[in-house]
Amino acid sequence: MKSLASKLVAVALGITVSASVALADSALEKVMKERGLSEIDLLAAAKTYTPTGMHDKYVVFSSGGQSGQVIVYGVPSMRIIKYIAVFTPEPWQGYGYDEDSKKVLRQGNIRGKEINWGDTHHPALSEVDGKYDGKWLFINDKANPRIAVIDLHDFETKQIVVNPVFKSEHGGAFVTPNTDYILEAAQYAAPLDNNYHPIEEYKESYRGGVTFWKFNKDTGRIEEKNSFTLEMPPYMQDITDAGKGASDGWGFTNSFNAEMYTGGIEKGLPPFEAGMSRFDTDFLHVYNWKILAKLAEDPKNVKIINDHRVIPMSVAVANNALFLIPEPKSPHGVDVSPDGKYITVCGKLDTHASVYSWEKIQKLIKDKDYAGKDPYGIPILDMKKALHGQVELGLGPLHNQYSPVDGEIYTSLYVDSQVVKWNYKDLKVLDKVNVHYNIGHLAGMEGKSADPQGDFVIALNKLAIDRFTNVGPLHPQNHQLIDIKGKKMQLLYDMPLPLGEPHQAVSIRASKLHPAVRYKMGTDSKTGKIHPGKTLAGEERIERDGKNVTVYATFVRSHINPERFTVNKGDTVTIHMTNLERAEDETHGFTVSQHGIHASLEPGETATVKFVADLEGVFPYYCTEFCSALHLEMMGYMMVKDPDKKYTSAKKLKMKTMSPEQLKQEYDKTVGVNKATDDVIQSVVKFLKDNKFGDYPAVAALVTDALDQYGKIPAQKKLSDDAVAAGDMDKAILYEGMIWQYMVKTADAGIRAKDMLVRKLATKQSSAAIAGERAFNEGGCSGCHVIGKVSSGPDLTGVLSRHENGEDWVSKFIKHPEKMYDDPYVKAMIDHFNLKMPNQSMSDQEVKDIIEYMKWIDENANLF
Ligand code: K7E
Ligand code: CUA
Fold it and tell me: Counting atoms of ligand 2 from 1, which one is nearest the CA of 628?
């Protein structure tokens, strides 16, 4: 078992089995035993574990379901990286709590009603030739028919459009292969206008449809005026997919309730679920959006409903742009193959997947070979003639994903709680794996694009039941990562997600994403334009205009400018805030106590909060991100006076003041500390310059950040000197203190740059040296020894050459230091440091590895 475990780990990690693995082995075996892990578990761990600093190969965008958001995580680590606020307020990012994001959220108002809840189902990535380009993400809201546009340059929602004719939807967002249109199919049929129509007139007045949202790739926005809807019968339209390759120009939407049943359980009628599943088949809608887009240009072809163009079914039929094909009852997923030649539909209530041949469908359309017409005059194609074939997969097949292997397809089985791998060309089932439990969608890696990557699928399960520690009746959702690289699928990892039901998730290779790390100074991130409230250093001000007070504020570590402002009770207060930082990840947040507002200001961003100061009193405001050592000090006061009240001033307390000598002493001390700190900074700068930091862009970026802070010092020095000249030592001390703050911030970024540069310049560590460094740190050596420095123990740089037979000497000393306490050298060290090297019970292997680590240190001694 020992050698098997080590081999497994070695193979999984791609390293050759060497002596160092034997070390891992004993420790590994111990952990395996303690935690009851098998070799299979270790293999799964090795496939997902992502050590610190390593990044994921794929990024997944999951619908956040009832949270109305999008959740972003990495694969294979399954680490959550971001929540994207979309249809619902998100407190951290200030989405819905500052004015600029409110404007986006309020685009989602429906008929004047504020909607702050959404039900996201289907995220879709923008495409070029059916392949993901990493630029935009779209997602729908099933409850309140809306589509949102997310910019992947900063992962923020930029636009929400409300469907003008639907009352609910489900078949969105699905994009055409070049992102010309975003498709959104209705769900529950309803009148397209906003009027009351009795349910008895369901067949006459209730309708479904598909909306084609025109996307402008230059502006990155949906153009509502250039969008249109195709009217469809009141079958409940469902999932949709756009054709690609061979079927480019076409769209496919399935449906349930071809029965057009209208319920009435409260009147003693059978319920919807019975009436809607009576027929053996429902309809797959097949339509040509290229023809429809042309038709929509002519006013003769459209009805205007709620200021929106709707193409009646009759017009679509007359122009050979709309057809129906029967599909097994109450289907769910409809998925076009990567080449666009096959369309797979899964019947939830049927054990089969039905594979339609695009070639056969095209021929039937061309020959006008119809099996009949539906009550609305739409031609129906014969199901058997359109089918490539059917395969029995199991109970409750739902959704499909593809892999790069020709014909290979993965399907979720809701009732069986399985993922099944099969081939849609030769119609053979290949493998099944159990999931926990009731899987809905599954996400392959780019698995619905024209360029599927394989590697993994993720099961997005509806129930978690017993998979996680019980946290009460509401369980988290369960995303399960499955390895599909081998012949047999392997379940690797369960990720609980406690933020709404993951309907669909889409993934993309991380290498295709190119997000920014900062905004151009003064940007309104929601519009991408310069914010009218942009404020640079020195431009901070408070403007009053009657009952309106406007504050132009700046944020930079670690102060908000202004730090005090006073308004009258009842004033409307607008605060424009600019984060002057350019340093990566230096976000500041802002809130005023007791006013329900919040903004998150990313480097370079300007945002605005607005509220009525309707309470009298004193209200602290502060930065809400722990941005720096003096973050708590990053605060200020809003004071609200009642203009109708008379205030008497408090009697002043007498406090002791410092003598001029004391002040001078404090001033000298502060200046001295600054001088010493500057020396450290200069030594770091010298190191960076000597080692050509400019050759390494990531290091250079940190150095720029550091120098940015350092550059603020001369202005402070001048203020300090002026204060000294004016005899105001108190003020001078404070400015000297400010200089020290900038020095600390400089050193903070500078030392990070130095560490990064050292790692880049140093020779590559052997796996033994890596193991040695770990043993050194974990075994407690680093508690007393700091490489490159004398600390509570001697510096170990060069230790191997300090003694004859150095390696041997050091090995013996680590193993049994107590035996050498009388050695004259050791004795001298003990006296000097007043500490004895303890026995850390290192194994022989650990000692060997530490020696390798020491050798690596010596090779790179110049860097420490
Ligand atoms: Cu099957 Cu909304 Cu696509 Cu839920 S949906 S699973
Ligand atoms: Cu800025 Cu805390």
Answer: 2
